[in-house]
Write a structure and sequence with these properties.
Largest sheet of chain A: 6 strands, mixed
Strand content of chain B: over 45%
Order of helices and strands of chain A: EEEEEEEEEEE
Number of helices of chain A: 0
Number of strands of chain A: 11
Distance between the termini of chain B: 37 Å
Oligomer: heterodimer
Order of helices and strands of chain B: EEEEEEEEEEE
Helix content of chain A: under 10%
Shape of chain B: globular
Number of strands of chain B: 11
Radius of gyration of chain B: 13 Å
Radius of gyration of chain A: 13 Å
Strand content of chain A: over 45%
Shape of chain A: globular
């Protein structure tokens, strides 16, 4: 079946460096994508979203890139801080506009001093 | 902005006992509501979603049920818990219907069935 997946289960980043988290998706019907951050014991926190009519979107210290040709999504975090340590999930809508998201397995980001 | 309240934060229940987890939403009206389950170290699996009072759709066959007695109240229940029901249960909310908007999550209930 079609699914969302992540290339790297764990990413170790030095404080101050930029982080790049990658996500592959295989459902060509997906037209809405979201990145979430989840800290231990808490619910996922919305970071940024992007629709399929865009290939780049920027927020505060974060940028999401969407490459529909190769079905690839990435999250870039600038100047990574200790507070960025968390599990990051990408999610896609499978073409469903009613908010039923399919989540990837997650990437653990560890920020080292 | 939306705020999702879930309780309790943690729960330990014996096999065969009933379950009732409650979720309430503030800051929006007529939201779509969702129950997700997250196994340890894994992604999120959608269990139920609701687009209005009394309207429940189930995504996977299971030992659980959901109800929406009020616009901003969503309840997850079971008559008899199984060991496999252990997990982290998350309630989520999104705006309206028929257009994409991000889901906002509560802080979850960690259920351990013993």
């Amino acid at each position: 079946g079609e699914s969302v997946g992540l290339h790297l289960p764990t990413l170790s980043v030095q404080e101050g460096d930029n982080s790049i988290i990658n996500c592959a998706y295989s459902n060509s019907a997906s037209d809405y994508f979201i990145w979430y951050k989840q800290e231990s014991g808490k619910g996922p926190q919305f970071i940024i979203d992007i629709r399929s009519n865009m290939d780049k979107r920027q927020g505060q210290r974060v940028t999401v890139l969407l490459n529909k040709t190769v079905k690839h999504l990435s999250l870039q975090i600038a100047a990574t801080q200790p507070g960025d340590s968390a599990v990051y999930f990408c999610a896609e809508n499978n073409g469903d506009s009613w908010g039923k998201l399919q989540f990837g397995a997650g990437t653990q980001v560890v920020v080292t001093p | 902005s939306q705020t999702i309240h879930q309780w309790p934060a943690t729960l330990v229940q014996p096999v065969g006992s009933p379950l009732s987890l409650e979720c309430t939403v503030e800051g929006t009206s007529n939201p779509n509501l969702y129950w997700y389950r997250q196994a340890a170290g894994r992604g999120l699996q959608l269990l139920f979603y609701s687009v209005g009072i009394g309207q429940i759709s189930s995504e996977v066959p299971q030992n659980l049920s959901a109800s929406r007695p009020q616009d901003r109240q969503f309840i997850l229940s079971s008559k008899k818990l199984l060991l496999s029901d252990s997990g982290f249960y998350l309630c989520a909310s999104s705006q309206g219907a028929n257009y994409n908007s991000p889901l906002h999550f509560g802080n979850g209930t960690r259920l351990t069935v013993t």
